[in-house]
Amino acid sequence: MKIKQIHDKFFRSTFANLEVSQNFLKESLPESILKTIDLDNLELQNGTHVSKELEETRSDLLFRTTINQKEGYLYLLFEHKSYLDKNVGLQLLTYLVNIWNQKVKNEKANHIPVIIPMVIYHGKRNWELGNALDTMILDYDGLSDDIKKGIPNFSYHVYDLNRFPDEVIVLGSLYYVTLSILKNVNRHDEQAVLEALKRVGTALNAMNEKQTATEYFETCLRYVYEIVPEFSNVNSNVVQKYIEQVFPEGSEIAMTLAEVLRDEGFEKGILKGEETGLEKGKKEGLLELAVEHLSLKFGVLPTDCQEKIASLDLKMLQIFNINIGNFKSIEDVKKFLGI
Asked: Is the pLDDT at 214 greater than 90, yes or no?
């Protein structure tokens, strides 16, 4: 699997969890904006808006909600390259325009909704590029106000993971666990990653729902093993001993790299598609897996659920399968699907 796909899979699977995305937004946006947003009714939207040529270094998620009591969106762009890219503002503008164009085209809308753009950055250097499009415009500050009025310009919110203090990790919080892993995995410092995994294990061990904690730890550990080559089969024994001090359930998962990468059927769905080399094969495998798991858990699925699941694209089906373990009822499934 390509490095981009590994980053993308982890970002999407973790931030699709509403606890993670809601806490991230609460800590990243100013109070003046937060009080206008309905964070309790975030709806993850289908698809991606990142262009093909840039998808190796970026992932994105779009959430629908209400902003100032009207339809609005929150757009999260995840920068997973190791260096600073001064073109982020220009690319963000392109993605926002694409979203607006789709709204106008598909819904014949007379107005375009508010979209709040955010960048999540976990490169090795601190973010020093500012957070507005005008930083790219030649001699913008020297222009007259009348000229500036005709030039598109906007600000975006940047969350630099370098500035995330590991010591603030909260016990039982999936949000802090996610940020801690994202911050440390890109540094390829074996000891730093080990310390991060130990903090993560401690935090997850404090959760009441041990199954959820264990599944989340497996997601994090798989991500670490795939991104950091130093964590080989040999080092997995070190990880196991390191983790068993604070998270016994996690130590069992950490026994071997093969165990971490095996995802009880979810990987079967991926492999079934990869063997054919066709996206259709991947989607059919994941769709079959999702319906089978949900049927075993809740019985015969309502027709609207089956149709909605079948309409998901490949990436959303991957996210959906990962979240099946979190669903407690059919209503949870419907809420995730936006039914």
From this structure: no
